[in-house]
Design a protein that fits this description.
The protein has 153 residues and is α+β, with helices and mostly antiparallel strands. It has helices spanning 15-28, 39-48, 102-116, 131-140, and strands spanning 6-9, 56-63, 66-76, 85-93, 122-123. Residues 5-153 form the N-acetyltransferase domain.
């Protein structure tokens, strides 16, 4: 019988298992080696999870003491709603745990926290080539039709 997956808030003791997941997420999006995030960004990201004044949060998927995935999300204001919006920023699972419902469980964990915070919307972005993840996203959300523009500085 497979061990149950627990979705829970991250703790300070999770750093050593969170870091390889974070590095894997960033590598997926081309941020590794010479293009890796600066150590200061990783350190700041980690510290924000534990700062009560920050709107950034993290959940992890755990089974038998091993972290199998992460999700980072944040709340922000909007000009079109009173309640905060919830932006699901990062989602990643280990390669061995893909296709086993962990990504869905992490997204649903964010849904639960967003509803508890009074948020009326959870949204996220993915790269247009991330077809595998989009198969899941099409089941747990709806495409908004919006196109993202940006300018990097």
């Amino acid at each position: 019988m497979p061990s149950p997956i627990v979705i829970r808030p991250i703790t300070r003791q999770d750093f050593e298992q969170w870091l390889p997941l974070w590095d894997g997420y960033n590598a997926f999006y081309g941020r590794s080696g010479e293009t890796a995030l600066a150590c200061e960004i990783t350190a700041m990201t980690w510290s924000r999870f534990f700062d009560a004044y920050e709107p950034v949060h993290a959940l992890v998927a755990e089974s038998e003491g091993q972290l199998l995935g992460l999700v980072h999300y944040l709340f922000h204001r909007s000009t079109t709603a009173i309640a905060p919006n919830c932006y699901l920023q990062d989602l990643f699972t280990t390669e061995a745990s893909r296709g086993k419902g962990i990504g869905r469980a992490l997204i649903e964990g964010v849904y639960d926290r967003a509803q508890a915070a009074g948020s009326g919307r959870v949204y996220w972005l993915t790269h247009e080539t991330n077809h595998t993840a989009m198969k899941l996203y099409d089941k747990v959300g709806e495409r908004s039709g919006f196109i993202v523009y940006r300018k990097m500085f």
